[in-house]
């Protein structure tokens, strides 16, 4: 019995698509765009893992949150 998606792996490899690299790239991109808490909650990963991904991607949300906190309420 085949696992779900197992038939796609050889096809993707033939096309030069490496799943582990693709997954890492996607996580890296998300880490630059989302705060760690949102990333962790959305992907169901531990917050410490999300923080590590964010630091690796240099997604510093500290400056962003400081900017938001200074904005006047609308």
Keywords:
elongated, mainly alpha
Walkthrough of the structure:
With 74 residues, this protein is mostly helical. It is 68% helix and 0% strand. It contains five helices and no strands. The protein has helices at residues 8-14, 19-33, 36-43, 47-56, 61-70. Helix 2 (19-33) crosses helix 4 and helix 3 packs across helix 4. It starts with 7 loop residues before the first helix and ends with a helix.
Summed over residues and divided by their number, the pLDDT gives a mean of 80
Contiguous uncertain segments of 5+ residues = none
Could you tell me the number of beta strands? 0
H/E series = HHHHH
Rg over CA atoms, rounded to whole Å, is 17 Å
Major sheet characteristics: none
Question: Roughly what percent helix?
Answer: 55-70%
In short:
Helix content is 68%, strand content 0%. With 74 residues, the chain is mostly helical. The model has no long low-confidence stretch (mean pLDDT 80).
Q: Strands, helices and their partners?
A:
Elements: H1 8-14, H2 19-33, H3 36-43, H4 47-56, H5 61-70
């Amino acid at each position: 019995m085949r696992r779900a998606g197992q038939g796609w792996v050889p096809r993707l490899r033939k096309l030069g698509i490496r799943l582990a690299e693709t997954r890492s790239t996607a996580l890296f991109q998300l880490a630059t765009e989302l705060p760690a808490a949102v990333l962790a909650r959305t992907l169901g990963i531990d917050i410490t893992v999300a923080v590590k991904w964010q630091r690796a991607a240099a997604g510093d949300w500290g400056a962003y949150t400081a900017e938001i906190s200074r904005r006047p309420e609308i």
